[in-house]
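Before surveying the methods themselves, we first show a specimen of the format, giving the amino acid sequence and backbone structure tokens:

:::
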Amino acid sequence: MGTRALDKDLEDIAASARAALVREIGISGAFDPDPAWREAFAAVPRHLFVPYYYVGALGGYERCWGEDPDLRARERWMRGAYDDAPLATRLRDGELVSSSSQPSLMAQMLAELRVTDDSRVLEIGAGTGYNAALLSYRLGEDRVTTVDLYPEITESARQHLAAAGYHPAVVTGDGARGVPERAPFDRIIATCTLTSIPHAWLAQCDPGARILAPLATGLITLTVRDAERAEGHFLHTPAYFVPLRGEGRPRPDAAASASRVPRAARDHELLRFLLTLSRGSLDPQEAYALWDREHAPQRERYGVTVAGGSAWAWLDDPEGPYVWPLPG
């Protein structure tokens, strides 16, 4: 965790807090689709991947640090590292550029990835390296590749992974382009918000591969048919992640342009999802009319198709009446 040896009290706190986190994730049901992930979360020490993080404070952020000279501050850092909460880990000019995601959401995403023992996985967004460590524990580090745009993020992720005893491939590059030199992949998981699904990913997948990624404010799951086509539905879960940096990065939230939508509906979470998913394709009033007519549809009714160099979102049926293009 750095130059300071982890004293016995902190080791005990870490063990107890990690066990409590695993129990909390289990109660949430996140492990249910694939209980094998419970062992990974029990084994991989999250605190090694967040040697410091930031918490909101009056006027900005306060840093919690594992090397703090104050023992009580180190104890707060350790307990916070095992909260079931996202942790801000890197700021640039006051803007969050990297984080460690909420563990229960990570567990749900990993379970929904539906890996098999021989799956080769590409992770888009290295973050702290914690997710890559969980994948490495489950699948073996030789089957895991993680990519991020910024060298300082990949370097710190590589260091954290090494400290925890894992050495997957950590690549510096634009995640929208994938990592062709490590292809083919059986699974792709993104830990950053997209505006569309990069076509380069399909070409780097074997037929039948599964892609799971944050899109709008949800999680899309796609099955890859071949290098030209993939299709699937959203999960029911809301999801908010740091935007993808590089090609295809998101534009400002279109929900802010919905001033002509009735005030009572404007802040409804499912309407904001549709406004974000249809940004640039549907006028906010048009999106509201659809949402109202279909009785505030849940996320699972929406899906995405990628085919022939284009991508589109839809409600209920990819060839039905409610279809709109996603950005290229």
Observations:
- DSSP finds ten helices and 14 strands in the chain.
